[in-house]
Amino acid sequence: MEIINKIREHREKEKQLEWRGTFKEYLELVKQYPHIAQSSHSRVYNMIKDAGVLEKDNHKMYRFFGEDIFGLEEPLEKLVEEYFHSAARRLDVKKRILMLMGPVSGGKSTIVTMLKRGLEEYSRTDAGAVYAIEGCPMHEDPLHLIPPHLRDEFYEEYGIHVEGHLSPLNLMRLEKEYGGNIEDVMVERIFFSEDKRVGIGTFSPSDPKSQDIADLTGSIDFSTIAEYGSESDPRAYRFDGELNKANRGIMEFQEMLKCDEKFLWHLLSLSEEGNFKAGRFALISADELIVAHTNEAEYKSFINNKKNEALHSRIIVMNIPYNVKVSEEERIYEKMIAGSDMADVHIAPHALRTAAIFSILTRLKEPKNQTVDLVKKMKLYDGEELEGYKDQDVEELKKEYQDEGMDGIDPRYVINRISSAIIRKEVESINALDVLRSLKEGLDQHASISDEDKERYLDFIAAARKEYDEAAKKEVQKAFVYSYEESAKTLMDNYLDNVEAYCNKNKLKDPLTGEEMSPDEKLMRSIEEQIGISENAKRAFREEILIRISAYARKGKKFDYNSHEHLREAIQQKLFADLKDVVKITTSTKTPDESQLKKINEVTARLIDEHGYNSVSANELLRYVGSLLNR
Ligand SMILES: Nc1ncnc2c1ncn2[C@@H]1O[C@H](COP(=O)(O)OP(=O)(O)OP(=O)(O)O)[C@@H](O)[C@H]1O
Ligand SMILES: [Mg+2]
């Protein structure tokens, strides 16, 4: 019965929020809480701001979007600052239709849905409360009741600009129901709800021949004409178009550019003048955020058509590109899978990451900076620290192209390919190779990929596989060395002691016998060779490390295993090389002996317990790495 209680609780909470009073009482509320009279644009902006703003690397990150949208911090910052913030301050952008432009399945609809759902919730909070003339189908702003000639005075007293004039329907009701006494008009608090068609609307064009403008602006109610005597009596009109219903909130205009012109003219007037024409009435004022979305091709053909100039100048376009960070892409897939019927399937570690690497590579543009290749760029974008590159370089790379991420592989494609890999495999467990294979096969069926792109994409599959091979080897290596980090640290300390002695021309002390001994050249070289440091370059490399250590010391920082990317890599590879033979033998023998079997079982157990594998994927990993090492 838990759920019944919850339902009751919810109902009671909603009841407590209700408010009803005369216009006079409403004005007292406004005096106390001026924000309740804010415009729709301002409400949307405050909703986003109130959810919290984090500052990161000179960028604002809006928590409002954080839960569902990943990796788009910069485009979203621009969207919030340049559109919502300016519109909230009554700047001219408010008069523009917001158009989100981006590649397919790049999160445009998700963003709009978040705004819509967000507003529904926000209107139930104190900060987002909205009030309307009671019983008005358009939830008209009560302040429209203030006669135009008194609005300057109202502004003096309340500091609020009233825009828009009383609608024909409420003008008539004021006369007929309230005898012209504005102060008595009843006002109520409203709660946005798309289901109930309050303050949130969606318009999506269908067949232009059959679709009626009534869907947008309402229509005459023929059944009541007899009662009211005339078509121009506003009571004989149903104000139930999407534009009417979305008043005070937000209207999503789907496929706006596919829409018949006659629908767009209403938008023109609404966006510019804040009003639109319905039936035989004077213009109706509306205050709503109109947001549309489109892709680049559609948008280009739209602006290339001269006929659309007027509308074009009333649109503000915001780019919503694909995410270009591998780890954020992984989160996108995780989210999409969690919400799908694949939620229970075991997805081996690295599977999503490998797919993400592929996707991101297809979205990036070739760096102009010659020292960076695409894979490096991908890593830098993802915040990886690469030897020899600074944050500054990443910023420079980003500046090379203004429109990066506007094409490439979309997340939905990846999810579809993962899903078909699962169907084919029949076991509820899939790994990075399954995913890559499926991605590759899918390229043939992908309608919108040119032959030229396909060639490139196949290269990216190979690149993603290479990254996976490295990761897979490392994973197995880690599982083989019991306390991997410990061994790595010990080896590094040992190396550093030797390097120090070598550079300072000192001797080392043998920890056991206390005897003096020369630096262990063989040990140092065995590590350096892992990363291709030649005999000639060894001195420079060692000296550089020593300089790094003293630089750390000066800053009071501890030089550790993670302080030098190159050195860390060398140490890992050295450890792995030592282990290679053990791994090779144990993973690839068809008939392992008892001790090998024991080792394999231990490693499998560790992969499962500590690295997120299951028994199927752990065995697949070991077999694969065994075959890699035997090449
Ligand atoms: N950056 C992102 N962060 C989180 N999820 C994303 C992101 N990009 C895409 N998605 C996910 O991909 C799926 C498709 O996104 P959505 O439908 O919002 O895209 P769209 O831009 O509206 O696409 P279309 O042009 O096909 O209408 C959704 O499940 C969405 O959550
Ligand atoms: Mg969409």
Automatic annotation (TrEMBL):
Location of the PrkA AAA domain: 21-371
Highest taxon, organism lineage: Bacteria
InterPro entries, per the entry: P-loop_NTPase, Prk_AAA, PrkA/YeaG, PrkA_C
Family matches, as Pfam families: AAA_PrkA, PrkA
Keyword check for Transferase: yes
GO molecular function: kinase activity
Keyword list, A-Z: Kinase, Transferase
Protein's UniProt keywords contain Transferase: yes
Name of the featured protein: PrkA family serine protein kinase
